[in-house]
Amino acid sequence: MRLLIGSSNPDKVREYRQILAGLDVELVAPSDLDPAPAEPAEDGPSFEENALTKALGYARATGLATLADDSGLEVSALRGAPGVRSRRFFGDRATAAERNAALLALLDGVADRAARFVCVAVLAFPDGRTESFRGECAGAIGVAPRGTNGFGYDPVFVLADGRTMAELPPSEKHRLSHRGRAGQLVRARLTRGW
Which tens digit of pLDDT belongs to each residue from 154-175? Predict the structure, then answer.
């Protein structure tokens, strides 16, 4: 069985390939297909809606079962922002390093640095069936980026043990992270069959 990882983000595709490794499933990315399908719009008001839209859009366009997610960072002091707009909150063209610097600047002098990562993953089938899985990871925003693993806000997201998400090796990150937790639920679902 083939499963499309519905994302144009190579870091996200890589993580899902690691999380789902060893399953009797051929994992493909949109870029592996010819022609590559267009990425569905990601403009809904919630992680759930965006993940559902992407998963169903890819499944219908390709005829393949699809796993897609929407994820982001919610910071308590910013009333849940950047949230569903995590990648675009500091501008559509901002790099990860620029987003992290802007977030740290917003929180300069702020005592409450509590935050969480959220991931909603949706399995969608060409016949329209869907299943949703949610993973969360609590932490705090640090005062400076640390670590070279991961991507996005990982270098500024500090876990309870004091390490940033970007300081974790992939195997440990996949046990603790929001995507890893959602992905483990997906993995358990796929082991039961289609």
Answer: 999 999 999 999 999 999 999 9
Is 70 annotated as catalytic? yes
Measured N-to-C along each axis, helices 178-191 and 10-19 cross at an angle, to the nearest 10 degrees, of 50
153, 163 Cβ separation under 8 angstroms: no
Domains detected in the chain = 2-191 (3.90.950.10)
pLDDT in tens, 72-97: 999 999 999 999 999 999 998 999 99
Per the DSSP assignment, residues forming a β-bridge with 140 are 114, 158
Amino acid at 175: R
Q: Which of 70, 92, 127, 154 is catalytic?
A: 70
Residue 79 to residue 59: CA distance in whole angstroms? 34
| Rounded Cα–Cα distance for residues 61 and 30 (Å) | 11
Residue 47, SS3? helix
Edge-to-edge strands, sheet with 2-5: 26-28, 2-5, 65-75, 114-124, 130-141, 157-158
Q: Is the dihedral of CA 171, 175, 177, 182 positive or negative?
A: positive
Q: Average the pLDDT over 142-146 and give the result.
A: 98
> SS3 letters for 63-119?
CCEEEEEEEEEEEHHHCCCEHHHCCCCCCCCCCHHHHHHHHHHHCCCCCCCEEEEEE
Question: How many angstroms separate the CA atoms of 147 and 188, rounded?
Answer: 30
